[in-house]
Amino acid sequence: QVQLVESGGGLVQAGGSLRLSCAASGRTFSRYGLGWFRQAPGKEREIVAAVNWSGGSTFTANSVKGRFTTSRDNAKNSVYLQMNSLKPEDTAVYYCAATARVFLSTSVREYDYWGQGTQVTVSS
Fold this sequence. Notes:
The chain has 124 residues and is an all-beta fold.
């Protein structure tokens, strides 16, 4: 089993930056792909970014491309989401998730383990 804990959320002004962290437990962390998802009020959970087990492949949703970047540090059992040039529409609860899939995963249905989420609020 994998346990995930997100941190780094908060309230920022438009144009600001935040760095989210996700710490994972388990000695097999490096064998899991990691994804970042978000869910805004009244909307379904959507993919934000993802990175495969080796870190060699990444995905960034079109809505955040050029502003958000995900990376992982297997030695620290952690994955990060650097968010720059934040916009009010980025406001949501952000979740990290893990999947045992070998290839890059971008669908919520492909992820097996989820963190509790961290709130990101961007004011205008």
